[in-house]
Write a structure and sequence with these properties.
- This protein is mainly alpha-helical.
- 67% of the residues lie in helices and 7% in strands.
- It has helices at 33-69, 81-110, 115-141, 152-164, 169-187, and strands at residues 2-6, 15-19, 71-72, 75-76.
- A hairpin with an 8-residue loop joins strand 1 (2-6) and strand 2 (15-19).
- It starts with a strand and ends with a helix.
């Protein structure tokens, strides 16, 4: 086994290319390997969704805190209605994503037939929440958000990286559509 470090988009999360040449493997006794891999992918999507929600929430609170301390024209920028609406919209996105992720986590333990659709929904909602929150936090911070003095750019990089980890939003949209079609056929 050889491990080759790779440069990544996210400086905090290292990446590597792992090559297995002549490595031994153990044959797993699994009746349906495709089904097991699909379940593993769904479980990983739920875990990733929770990471994205945590990042989105951090972006939301960073933007709020900065807006409360930054002043323009003699008053905090948090007092402007446009910014209040933006922060409220972010809050709704984060809470919706959290609700979807909680249901997907519940489905992992209680309803295996609901897991594919729940995992895809959680993944899509969390991706939208984190990408939007990272972008809006950067916008709220203005120019300082692009400097090392603020963590906005770290979250933006992480949001972009996680949006394609385990498959792109298009991939998860197709999985959701497929899961919904299967559910519809079963109930018909």
């Amino acid at each position: 086994m050889t491990i080759e470090p790779l440069e990544g988009f996210d400086f905090v999360r290292p990446h590597a290319n792992i090559r297995l040449d002549g490595a031994t493997a153990v044959d797993l006794d699994i009746a349906d390997a495709d089904e097991a891999l699909d379940r593993l992918l769904d479980q990983a999507a739920v875990a990733c969704a929770f990471e994205q929600i945590g990042g989105a929430e951090a972006c939301l609170w960073m933007a709020r805190d900065y807006a409360l301390q930054r002043s323009a024209f003699g008053r905090p920028i948090a007092s402007y209605q446009a910014l209040k609406h933006k922060l409220a919209d972010l809050y709704v996105l984060v809470e919706l994503a959290r609700s979807n992720a909680f249901f997907a986590a519940w489905a992992m333990d209680h309803d295996a037939s609901a897991l594919p659709a729940a995992a895809a929904t959680a993944r899509l909602a969390a991706t939208e929440a984190y990408e939007t929150a990272a972008r809006e936090s950067l916008q709220t911070h203005g120019g300082i958000g692009f400097t090392w003095d603020a963590d906005c750019h770290f979250h933006y990089r992480r949001a972009r990286l996680l949006s394609v980890a385990l498959g792109t939003p298009v991939f998860w949209s197709e999985r959701l559509f497929g899961a919904l079609q299967k559910t519809r056929r079963r109930s018909a």
